[in-house]
User: Fold General substrate transporter from Hesseltinella vesiculosa.
Amino acid sequence: MESIEATTPKYMVYCVMVASLTSLSLGWIMGSPNVPGEVTHNCPTGNARIFSFSFPDCLPMTTYGWAFAVASFGIGGFFGGIGSVYFQSKVGRKRTIMLSNAGFVIGSVIIALSISPAMFIIGRIIVGLSCGMCTMVIPTYIGEISTIRARGAMGCFHPLFIALGIFLTTLIGMFLAYVPYWRLCYALAGLPSLIQMILMISCAESPRWLISMNQIEKARHALQQLRGSADVDREFFEMIQGQVGATAAGSVSSHPMALDDTDDEGENIPVEPGEEGMVYRRPMEQQMTLRALARDPVLRRMTMTLLSIHALQQFMGMSAIVYYSTMVFSITFSQARLVAILATLDTIVNMLMTVAAVALIDRMGRRKLLMISEAGTALFSVVTFLGLFFHQPILLTVGLLCYVAVYSLGMGPIPWILTIDMCPTYASTTIGGLATCLHWIINFVMAFFFPIVLGAIQGFTFLIFAGVSLAALVFTYLYVPETKNRSIESVVREYESRCR
Assistant:
């Protein structure tokens, strides 16, 4: 069997699961301020040291101060995304994932040992650095090691583990939302990263990255590891052809397709003898700068499509719900325990619907699932608004839970999957870096301003989310291609035909 027909080889799935453990830490960081947030910054005893001589009971902050503390990890995320552009190109996807774990461990310890709001914020920024790195490199790694037929499902494991992390920190936060145990809730975020750092040693490097670094034999060996007993000749040829053209691919591949010595545009990268046989002269991934990206009509159009869908994803408001669902429920529910239970239920729905996305995305396709998600998010944002406006607890609960459900089914995982489905290896780092930086800039804006806007206009906030969801629906219908069961190279050719 040819590897392009393979679905889920065991070792490939193992590598995807191990890589996604860092996503668990990311989800934990995102969800940790939600349930224990009140006791973290507004406990009755303030900064008194009643429970411990070493640490204050909590870290008193104003609403603006707490909003900034929660949002501050977005600052780290922005710079972590920039750093990931360099590291994943220079040292590889695998080592960058391992490196990203350091910030989770160090930052989590700093947050747990904080004695002042400033120290808490510094810890959040440090974990944010790792969040930014793994937000970019993990989807890239998963996309580059996955089979074509399972790339959508495998790509969903990144958001699935994020959802699992959010659920676990919310659930555990219910029992640790007391002085001084809230500190433990923040400290646990580093545990999955420690485990992942050890297990990642046993995983393969991305074959596409190895090809871009002229390590052809290592790339072939890694691909064969990831595909088990399947014949990798055709897939390996197409990987090389997509980066450097048919002539270069033919010089290192025995596949019959190599007999055609020109690529679609009639251009090929020259080849020359190297340590591992015939290799092309220079890795194309290092050549695609921002200036080159802006000048290329195909990649420019692709980039604008992806950046737009990432911006719409954030402005639809899910990140704000992850950080502040307890604040939303508290508008109509007065019992703190019930609010915490509803917030936990919210994360369960998020996790279960992400599991559903894993099952559906390679059956229904990205585009259809995305449009269903956007339409549903618009509808249930209005239902949530009605629940808040008329102070109807049941309507609010149904609206918010259904909002989370339909968002998690499509708009949550698919923008990142589209990024790995559409971007050729020689441009994936640059485009992925832009998407990551934009993601974290808007994430910071949403995390900082949501509690302020919610306090000012209450439920009308969700009408804004409904409007953005409708805009996303129209944009997807007009501009987003279907990438189900397609190679990256075929998607690039489609964009080339559109630009002619």
The radius of gyration is 23 Å. The first helix runs from residue 10 to 31. The chain is about 70% helix and 0% strand.
